[in-house]
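FAQ: What does the model actually see?

It sees only this:
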Amino acid sequence: MSNEYKKGLVLISVLPLFVFSLLGLLFLLGSRDSTTAVKDPVQLGSVVLGPSYQDIAIQGRYAYVVSITDDVLKVVDVSDPLRPRVVGVSAPLGAISGNVVRLAVSGRYGYVVDLNSNVLRVVDISDSTSPRLVSRLTLPNDSIADVAASGLYAYVVDLGISPGDDDNFTIVDITNPLAPRVASVLFLNPPPRGLMGPYDMLVEVVGSYAYVLDAAPAGEKSTFRVIDVSHPSSPSVTAILGLSFATRSSFGGLAISGHYGYFISGTGSKFQVVDVTSPFAPLETGNLALDNGVAGLAVSGRYGYIVSTSDTFKIIDLAFPAAPKVIGSAFITLTSGASVAVADHYGYVVNDDPISGNLTIFDLGDLTGGRLRVAQE
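And it is asked to produce this:
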């Protein structure tokens, strides 16, 4: 046997071991990078807003917040995260004092609704120093729970409070924000219930589909609906998923990112993941038990962000949707509920204090932004 032949045999015998070791090393390096790239959030600046600011949206260099007590929309310049400052305040919006208020922002306009009212308010935010109410639309709804805006349409969900009432999913044409009009109303058969607390329904819209969470009382299953909105004049439900838990209290938020939907169970004790790859067959995929109630939820890229009632702002790794896990946290003082938003490398938390709430900014590291959905106690 020649020396060249022996050398070839040795090379062939050790090559698989070398390749296997190289792959293992690359895996370990990748795992190390994915876990060390995220650090605990670092608190930066803060600004006092006033009482009961319950929702927040980020667009460009500004944060937009709404209050049930002040009954206004405020604009906060967050271009300097160490020194955020209020630059604009609207006149009173005419919300019903003492009810939950929700906000969606798209382009030059903000869209405001409040629980136990059937009015959609349109606010011109093109001048950051002077946001102003430009129109109001009375909707055929009982009690508006949430609003989303995308393109030329706003999407509103409401609760059928009275016995025999349906829940409604209403699409509003906002092509002309000065004169919005109802494009369609889709009646949803609600789970059996009596009078319920706030945020029993949440809505998110991504592309041609809307996603609606609808809570149920103890003993009944809450539902996750997918609605085709590609034809605004005739939306249709493509799937109804009966969730594996039931709750009479409010959901802790809803977010859709990529092929997955994320939300907090109504008790605030579980972070849920639903696979929405097929709009005709959503599936419960994974969950994460939480030790405390959750007041706010956001999802951006491979990370989720929650604010718990134990005064912690947590980062959740969603790389494996079947097994989400907490990988970072920071302390924040809360006296009530909270709203959360994420944009670029920063997290924004509004403290819904009934006397003097504030907006606090956190440095999240090298992460990208996304829209947040939140709930209040």
